[in-house]
Amino acid sequence: MDLPSTSGQPSPSSQPARPALQTIAVVGLGTMGSGIAEVLARAGREVIGIDISEAAARRATAALAAATARSVAREQLTEQEREAVLARFRTFSELGAAADADLVIEVVPESYELKQRIFRELDAIVRPTAILATGTNALSVTRMAAESQRPERVVGLHFFNPVPAMKLVEVVSSVLTA
């Protein structure tokens, strides 16, 4: 039996545990970002999709709606489950939307300068406990981590396309990753 603490609040053990990495931001909603967002929303995570292109955000939302509608038609999801998945995905055009994310996955075009600019901006936005991940498959994760204010919390996450069909992801740590 859990006893209340002397502060009148329930003891930590009586509060439901928050799942690790509950809120995940995906920066870049092209083919890979849309697929990653779909997999995460289906897995029960709150997904913050971020793209400077409103058209890309609309395409990502439409792709998720179409994929989940197909799953309902195939009786892989109920309509209620579909609605829950769609409700977990929200899109934004500013990186500031990632402020409360536990994990931020960057999947923008393979430009070191672009990725570094995004990481520098995220360093100033996200909580110190957030993990920053790059979806690069060609650039140095160690180099990106070294220029971050939180090199120990930077990893590479290389998803395979199409993300919803490919049940694997390569996790790349750097020599600086904790």
What does this structure look like?
The structure is a single chain. Helices cover 34% and strands 19% of the residues. The protein is of the alpha/beta class. It has one domain: NAD(P)-binding Rossmann-like Domain (Rossmann fold, 3-Layer(aba) Sandwich), CATH 3.40.50.720. α5 links the parallel β5 and β6. The longest helix has 20 residues. It is globular, with a radius of gyration of 18 Å. The N terminus is likely disordered.
Question: Main sheet, how many strands, which sense, barrel?
Answer: 7 strands, mixed
Q: List segments where confidence is low: pLDDT < 50 over at least 5 consecutive residues.
A: 1-12
Would you give the CATH topology?
Rossmann fold
**Would you state the CATH class?**
Alpha Beta
CATH architecture descriptor text: 3-Layer(aba) Sandwich
- Cα distance, first to last residue? 36 Å
Percent helix range: 25-40%
In a nutshell, what does this entry contain?
This protein has helices spanning 31-42, 54-73, 79-87, 112-125, 141-146, and strands at residues 23-27, 46-50, 89-92, 103-106, 131-134, 154-159, 169-173.
Question: What order do the helices and strands come in, and which of them pair?
Answer:
Blueprint: E1 23-27, H1 31-42, E2 46-50, H2 54-73, H3 79-87, E3 89-92, E4 103-106, H4 112-125, E5 131-134, H5 141-146, E6 154-159, E7 169-173
Parallel strand pairs: 1-2, 1-4, 2-3, 4-5, 5-6
Antiparallel strand pairs: 6-7
Helix pairs in contact: 1-2, 2-3
